[in-house]
Write a structure and sequence with these properties.
Layout lengths: L1 H37 L6 H23 L7 H5 L2 H32 L13 H4 L1 H20 L3 H9 L1
Helix pairs in contact: 1-2, 1-6, 2-6, 4-6
Length: 164
């Protein structure tokens, strides 16, 4: 059940990241065309690209968590017996969950500071840009909880079987 919820959430986040990346490509190309051909002197493509990139990168973290594709060093893990490996992997997932939960809590205050700050262009608050931190951290923490329940420390065994 946790695996199915994780997969659905991941598909939704991947679709959002893909849409943001499409917007980013269009925005950057518009900036290039403006600078070298059209000479409209648009002030916003560079800043919009920055905010889109932040959102895409932050949201993509949860996709890596859902697929267990983040880099890891397993030299110590490989030397442990299976029970020790499972315990260590569960502890690492729990620790990572706590980290993302802390970032979520910290990020709420960070995003709130954006309410009082304005973007150099658009005349808008920076809160939507700053909200990438708590939103992405909440999704990452949720994905970590789901994959922890799904795998219960067996992900390393699956990785080893795929290598053979």
């Amino acid at each position: 059940m946790a695996g199915q919820i994780s997969d659905r959430l991941n598909r939704a986040i991947e679709a959002i990241v893909a849409a943001i990346m499409l917007l980013l490509v269009v925005d950057v190309w518009l900036g290039v065309l403006d600078r070298y051909l059209l000479h409209w002197q648009l002030p916003w493509p560079e800043e919009l690209a920055r905010y889109l990139m932040i959102w895409a990168a932050m949201l993509a973290v949860s996709c890596g968590i859902a697929r267990r594709e983040h880099i890891g060093l397993s030299i110590l893990l490989d030397k442990l017996p299976e029970g020790g490996r499972r315990g260590l992997l569960i502890a690492m997932d729990a620790l990572a969950f706590l980290l993302f939960f802390y970032v979520f809590l910290y990020g709420i205050g960070f995003a709130a500071t954006g309410l009082n700050r304005q973007a150099m262009i658009f005349g808008m608050s920076l809160a939507p840009a700053f909200a990438a931190i708590p939103v992405a951290a909440a999704i990452a923490a949720t994905q970590l909880a789901l994959v922890l329940i799904r795998d219960l420390g067996t992900q390393h065994l699956v990785d080893q079987a795929e290598e053979v």
